[in-house]
Amino acid sequence: MVKRGSQRKRGRPPKFGRTADLVSFTLPRDVITWLESIDDDPAWAIVRLHERLTKQRDSQVQVAQLVRFPGKRALILVNPDLFGKVPGVSLIPLADGRAFLALDHGKGVADLELAVLDHLEDPATETRQRDALKRLRTLLKQWRQEGIQFEPRSIIVASSNR
Asked: Are 67 and 123 contained in the same domain?
């Protein structure tokens, strides 16, 4: 016997586990290919990206993380408030308050680790930044142990005079 208020609705359950609307729009083929690298269903890929981004914004910005791109590549994303004074490190700010980590030309991950160690030993380094540097050092070691290989690349940063 089924109680009156507990009857299940007939038909297909909601696709994303919540109410949704049908939206039709045109995307460039390369964007569709990129979305399909995240999920075979482009709608699910968009929802996953939304959930990932809103979760990151809602939670406290992590000290550092690898942000993966389609394929096997990733960049190191950091909280810029914690790494602005590390010699040889440049930060490429993003609109959401985070920043990509970039090194001076010709420098690699070993140079980054040395700069982190040197900055940890500097008595002028604040406690909050010291904790972040320790966490970054741990993450770099963890990523290496997971088989992640780092290769230096040059980037071009364009600045506007306006």
From this structure: yes
**Is residue 45 one of the residues assigned to a domain?**
yes
Reply yes or no on whether the pLDDT at 104 is more than 60.
Answer: yes
104 and 143 share one domain = yes
For 32, the domain range is 28-59
pLDDT of 98 strictly over 60: yes
Q: What are the phi and psi torsion angles at 118 (to 5°)? A: -60, -40
Could you give the number of structural domains in the chain?
Answer: 2
Query: How many CB atoms are located within 10 Å of the residue 31 CB?
Result: 11
Residue 128: per-residue pLDDT:
87
Do 82 and 128 belong to one domain? yes
Q: Give residue 30's pLDDT.
A: 93
The reported pLDDT for the residue numbered 97 is 82
Average pLDDT over residues 52-66: 67
49 and 122 co-located in one domain:
no
